[in-house]
Amino acid sequence: MKTIVCDQPDHLSYQERPTPVVTQGQALVRIRRIGICGTDLHAFRGRQPYFSYPRVLGHELAGEIITVGDGVTDLKIGDAVTVMPYLECGDCVACRSGKTNCCTSLQVIGVHQDGGMQEIIRMPADHLIKAPGVGFDELALVECMAIGAHAVRRAGLSVGENVLVIGAGPIGLGIMQFARIAGARVIALDLDAQRLEFARNWAGAAATVQGGDEHSKRLVDELTAGNGASAVFDATGSAQSMIQGFDYVTHGGRYLLVSIVDATISFYDPDFHRREMTLLSSRNATREDFHWVLQCLADKKLDLVPLISHRCRFDRLIQEFRAWTSPGSGLVKGIVEV
Ligand SMILES: [Zn+2]
Ligand SMILES: [Zn+2]
Fold first, then answer.
1. Quick one: 141 exposed, middle or buried, by C-beta within 10 A (0-12, 13-18, 19+)?
2. 3-class SS at 78?
3. Residues 267, 290: contact at Cβ < 8 Å?
4. Which element (helix H / strand E) includes 34?
5. Does pLDDT of 227 surpass 90?
6. Which CATH class is domain 148-281?
7. Exposure check for the chain: N or C terminus, fewer CB within 10 A?
8. Domain boundaries in the chain?
9. Does the structure show a pLDDT above 90 at 323?
10. Mean pLDDT of 30-39
11. Which residues pair with 188 in a beta bridge?
12. CA distances for 240 relative to 125, 245, 253, angstroms
């Protein structure tokens, strides 16, 4: 089967590899769609921390079951599935408390081990979720949306509360969608006017603020009767933004750091204490979050197709990838058809 390998930063190549063989509890998935995300782009450019080469990228995956191993009873050949790419150990302190998303020895396919830029992938069957009636394009975007769904679930939003989402890339847009579905009033903040327009039109943001300085702080205050937002989500991938984000949180509010950066994030303690602020990180997603995304798709609360800005065939990906990763490509979500 054909595989695309990231041999070293800035280089992809096609390789022929043998089709894997399933054992107990596993299944083979014929990959039909691969979503491209920031992690893939950072790894390609050599900017992903703790990443080693060669590596098969790709963790946003949709496909069709072609073989099931012994003991697999809930999947059958031909089922359309989305892939949960987080392989947890199952018995560490986090796994035992149901927090498989932050397993102490978590392996994410496409990051820590080979991922889905190949025609067929072998997975533990319990990491494949079938969703009859959902198209492959949308199935490939479930993982990316589940990250937003998880962050929103961590925040425990209530109806009508003011939520500020900083960063209107795919993760931030997902947070906005699930915050909207939870009944919150969403304010989107980003540097890019086009992304903010998308946040309004697609993600249902009630208001948008362009910038990230003192002026934008004043605008957010005006939009929230002078209080600030009771839940602020960071999805910028910028340490500077993550530090500034503390200023937007109202008294008694919470701040959720969704994007991860290789840096130290600090805050001025009296400001933090005065407001009795709650600080939360949010990592990956759990099975419940995947099911919630699929439920929202089934209920037509969410239409993911407009997120797809770029598309190509698997055999054209190497040629296209460089253009997709260049600044100014306008990439929101790239989808590879296999
Ligand atoms: Zn991703
Ligand atoms: Zn574990």
1. buried
2. coil
3. no
4. strand 26-36
5. yes
6. alpha beta
7. N
8. 2-141+304-337, 148-281
9. no
10. 94
11. 165, 208
12. 41, 9, 20
CA 43 to chain centre: 15
Please give the class, per CATH, of domain 2-141+304-337: alpha beta
CA-wise closest residue to 140 among 56, 55, 29, 12:
29
Nearest to 103 by CA among 285, 290, 264: 285
pLDDT band at 327 (very low <50, low <70, confident <90, very high): confident
Q: What is the pLDDT of residue 235?
A: 97
Of the bound ligands, which one is closest to the alpha carbon of residue 59? Answer: 1
What mean pLDDT is reported for the chain?
95
Nearest to 320 by CA among 18, 117, 110: 117
Task: Over range 165-173, report the average pLDDT.
Answer: 97
What are the structure tokens assigned to 239, written together? Answer: 């340490």
Interval between CA 85 and ligand 2 midpoint (Å): 14
Rounded Cα distance, 200 and 297, in Å: 19
Distance 102 CA to ligand 2 centre (A): 7
| C-alpha of residue 290 to centroid of ligand 1, in Å | 14
Domains 2-141+304-337 and 148-281 share a fold: no
